Amino acid sequence: NAGVMQNPRHLVRRRGQEARLRCSPMKGHSHVYWYRQLPEEGLKFMVYLQKENIIDESGMPKERFSAEFPKEGPSILRIQQVVRGDSAAYFCASSQGFGNTEAFFGQGTRLTVV
Amino acid sequence: GESVGLHLPTLSVQEGDNSIINCAYSNSASDYFIWYKQESGKGPQFIIDIRSNMDKRQGQRVTVLLNKTVKHLSLQIAATQPGDSAVYFCAENEVSGGGADGLTFGKGTHLIIQP
User: Fold this and answer.
1) How far is A60 from chain B (nearest CA, A)?
2) Which residues of chain A does B44 touch, with a Cβ-Cβ cutoff of 8 Å?
3) Tens digits of per-residue pLDDT, A32-63?
4) For residue B99, is pLDDT > 80?
5) A33 neighbourhood in chain B, CB within 8 Å
């Protein structure tokens, strides 16, 4: 039973490019959460999605960031026109459902903007 | 705003000793708490959770204590081993309120095991 899979593990982008981060939840999990972690800090909630629905995006920056979780395929976190401040580790977590809140995390994608 | 925080950024203990990592939370509506362990370069790993209707929960070598009166959470690790070296985060959520927010994490405590 594979865990939460994120790819790529490392991503380097030049300022102004787009970054696409992918997350495949654990088998049987229909809830996906994205978090951002800056060095030496805790994780900050960004967005919570179910299949084809954004449930809560209160932690998402208002511009350049978007997320989706299509009916088929992985969840995608998309960052347009990246800036140096976007450099961070981005983690995805999944859970079986609301109320069953034991969330399992992936290994993360480390984004570096040069 | 509401946040979860930890008292100490770094905790150093001797191998074989017991460790206690503390966490204070400010959202009185929080009713679900989790401890995560994060090793360098890896994602957070679930250790143990506790709901607000409990004061104590035990796992393998770990115990979580919840004091709702003072909004304090602690993680006790018995007989620490070198593999316990990591950053430990507490996280909380308000499940019963129907909120759909993700977990709120504290900054983390770096546990260092001395040989």
Assistant:
1) 12
2) 43, 91, 93, 105
3) 999 999 877 889 999 999 988 998 899 999 99
4) no
5) 102-103
